[in-house]
Design goal:
heterodimer; A: alpha/beta; seven-stranded parallel beta sheet; 8 helices; 32% helix; B: alpha/beta; Urease, subunit C, domain 1; TIM Barrel; 2 domains; nine-stranded parallel beta sheet; six-stranded mixed beta sheet; 10 helices; 25 strands; 23% strand; Metal-dep_hydrolase_composite (chain B); hydrolase (chain B); Metal_Hydrolase (chain B); metal ion binding (chain B)
């Protein structure tokens, strides 16, 4: 797992947006070989989405051959309800991109048969060759998508009852009235996300600090479902300084040192986007003590 | 979600990008305007349910895109007077079309053809040709129904009207039906606005009946004192015809009709959608305003710019820009007619009854009115535009489909530059070919 620590929400958003742009452009998607992207909702990805919109408008990133699958959607909320995830994705992302409507997939919370809808969603993902990069956030209770504490780590797309903590957290979008928040949602499973060839999780804010610590410093545990990322060969967490507040100093220093080593000893010319290393530069004897703080 | 059983309409979807849109009383940058079949649409449903994307993209190049202007008091133009009843029905129909087409050049996408005080024969002949009619880019501006100004008005405040035709309402609504003919019974289908003087005998009592027919009752050409005016509003009048003109001047102890702007204890509006929205100047700042709308002619001649400003800030949400333009609109300076009387246009574009100082109307266009208004009051761009779009739509109770860029509205659009000069005009989603030089 890679952990990239940046100063604040904006820097994290910029990093992730740039990362996605580079990944898509290096992949060079075509109609026969599209780039399949998994997308979240909530306040975490908004900064990233704004940046992606800028890239699309400036021509640096095209969504013509990008297929997207969203993580989740409320059950029972009309698609054009102001708080539905369809509305969120439309106004924050799709309205501004050159993406084709038939390449966008969001679970339908009003389908006549919800189980069928979930199975079909998994089938659609399989049909396009699986997800290349799944972007996600994390809940204060460590959940990925709506996989609340107690969700099986091998779960697939299904109907979930929302945990009380999640309902409280979402009440702010429903006039602060807990009664108005939907209690059920359709969500991709933990395994659905981990089946992607790469998983990128953004974590910002001090209120996510405990969740981050539980997910990367402790065991793989169904109570903190993001911890499943520990078993993924290409997991990337991008977080801000505030969210590292509950981590061990050693953990933070270690991950920061990795970036420093990459810059100084390996050099970006030898480094691939996903962390692969070709060779190192001719070494210069380094006087700095190992525990020196890294920027 | 299961959509309707009808197959998706295959008609063209147009998207406007790079525009500054007037949405929700603000100028908004990162938004887009989508329309299809002449109506503004919300594209989200089309995107998700029908997988439709835009077929045509129009680049507004940073210009402001606003709703088309609406003029609820205009007597004619291009040499044509709506009260002119001579000539065949064909000729009159053609004349109406000529004006409707010409008005598009000024960004006026909907208007109420105004007919000054006339004899019953004239109304019988002319009103049926002024019924509601949809607009289109080639045929002309939308007709919203006629504005019949008089003859139930005051001799003292006749302006350029012919006072021999004036009547009283002694016999109530029957007198009105006789005066105007069968079109009045059609209510808002044929007649959108009626201007009357409430102090004339029997007139105030008829106001509720007229309002019931869906007609907007407007008080004007009247010497009413403040209580008579307020009573008329209480009975259902929702508009004041060209404030300041053809009414008693403001007197601090009896402010007359102008004083209605300062009214506090009018009854709550029966139909709040046809009253001004609440503002900081409303009697109750959270409820729709019980005060009526008021028209203002802003050519700088009919009303001094300072007076415009005073009225505006007393009641901003009620201000409606009208041109009261005459047959001389769009033509060079000279002699013209209005309701059978000879008029003279001077260098300022002001029209006087030949040989007198009596103003008879203006030759200003609605888009020049918006520019003047902004200059006179130093209001915001949004406020200036709303006075010619949203507010007239509210007067007629059609703000769900006119005067806004909300989904469901008619795609009557103007592209404006920063000086509020018109660059492009769309009526019902089709672009109008602009021939005049952009001012």
């Amino acid at each position: 797992m890679r952990l990239i620590i940046r100063e604040d929400y904006d820097e994290v958003s910029n990093y992730v947006a740039n990362y996605i742009k580079e990944r898509v452009n290096q992949f060079a998607p075509t109609a026969e070989r599209p780039f399949v992207l998994g997308l979240p909702t909530g306040s975490s990805p908004i900064g990233t989405y704004n940046k992606l919109v800028d890239f699309c408008k400036s021509g640096e990133l095209s969504f013509e051959h990008v297929i997207t699958f969203n993580m989740d959607e409320y059950v029972g909320l009309p698609k054009n309800h102001p708080q539905s995830y369809h509305t969120f994705m439309w106004s924050n992302l799709f309205a501004h991109l050159n993406i084709k409507p038939e390449n966008v997939h969001i679970l339908d919370g009003n389908a006549p048969d919800l189980d069928e809808e979930c199975k079909e969603f998994e089938a659609k993902i399989a049909r396009v060759g699986g997800i290349e990069l799944f972007l996600g956030g994390i809940g204060p209770d460590g959940h990925i998508a709506f996989n609340e504490p107690g969700s099986s780590l091998t779960s697939r797309t299904r109907v979930k009852t929302l945990a009380y903590e999640t309902i409280i957290a979402n009440a702010r979008f429903f006039d602060g009235d807990i009664g108005k928040v939907p209690k059920l949602a359709l969500t991709v499973g933990v395994a659905t996300v981990m089946d992607a060839r790469e998983v990128v999780v953004t974590i910002t804010g001090a209120h996510k600090a405990i969740a981050l610590a539980k997910c990367i410093e402790e065991g793989v545990n169904h109570m903190w479902t993001v911890s499943a990322i520990q078993m993924h060969p290409k997991g990337l967490i991008v977080c801000d300084e505030d969210s590292t507040l509950e981590l061990h100093v050693k953990t933070v220093k270690y991950f920061k040192s990795i970036e420093h080593v990459h810059q100084a000893l390996i050099g970006t010319e030898n480094l691939s986007l996903q962390g692969g290393v070709k060779q190192i530069r001719p070494t210069v004897f380094n006087q700095r003590p190992m525990n020196h703080p890294y920027e | 979600m299961l959509s309707t059983n009808k197959p998706a309409p295959k008609s063209k979807i147009t998207k406007i990008v790079n525009a500054r849109l007037l949405l929700d009383h603000k100028i908004v940058k990162d938004s887009y305007l989508w329309f299809q079949d002449g109506k503004i649409i919300h594209p989200q449903n089309l995107f998700f349910d029908q997988h439709r994307d835009a077929d045509e993209i129009i680049d507004a190049q940073g210009m402001m895109v606003v709703p088309g202007y609406m003029d609820i008091q205009i007597n004619g133009g291009y040499g044509i007077d709506f009260a002119d009843h001579e000539g065949s029905l064909d000729k009159i129909q053609k004349d109406v079309d000529t004006v409707a087409k010409g008005l598009l050049q000024y960004g006026c996408t909907a208007f109420c053809p105004t007919v000054v005080s006339s004899a019953p024969e004239v109304y019988n002949k002319v009103l049926p040709l002024l019924n509601k009619r949809k607009g289109d880019a080639k045929g002309g501006s939308e007709i919203l129904g006629a504005h019949i100004e008089g003859p139930f008005i005051s001799h003292e405040k006749k302006g350029a009207h012919n006072q021999e035709i004036f009547r009283t309402g002694k016999r109530g609504i029957d007198e009105f039906d006789e005066a105007y003919g069968p079109e009045l019974k059609k209510g808002s289908e044929a007649v959108s606005i009626i201007t009357l003087a409430p102090e004339i005998e029997g007139v105030t009592e008829v106001i509720p009946e007229l309002a019931n027919r869906g007609i907007c009752v407007s008080i004007g050409h009247s010497a009413a004192t403040i209580d008579v005016a307020e009573n008329a509003v209480a009975k259902g009048a929702t508009l004041i015809t060209h404030l300041f003109n053809a009414m008693l001047p403001f007197h601090h102890r009896d402010p007359g009709m102008i004083g209605v702007l300062g009214a506090v204890d009018l009854p709550a509006p029966v139909d709040p959608a046809r009253h001004p929205s609440a503002s900081n100047t409303s009697p109750d700042r959270t409820k729709p305003d019980p005060r009526p709308f008021y028209g203002l002619i802003v050519d700088g001649v009919h009303v001094h710019p300072n007076s415009v400003r005073i009225a505006y800030y007393a009641h901003p949400k009620g201000c409606v820009l009208v041109t009261d333009a005459l047959s001389a609109l769009g033509l060079p300076k000279g002699l013209y007619t209005l309701g059978g009387r000879e008029l003279e246009i001077d260098d300022n574009g002001a029209a006087y009854i030949k040989g007198t100082n009596t103003l008879a109307g203006s030759t200003i266009s609605i888009d020049q009115s918006v520019r003047n208004f902004r200059q006179f009051t130093k209001c915001t761009v949004v406020e200036a535009i709303e006075a010619a779009t949203l507010h007239p739509a509210q007067v007629l109770g059609i703000s769900d489909r006119k005067g806004t860029l909300n989904p469901g509205g008619d795609a009557d659009l103007l592209f404006l530059n920063d000086d509020l000069e018109i660059q492009r005009v769309f009526v019902y989603g089709e672009e109008v070919e602009l021939t005049k030089n952009k001012k």
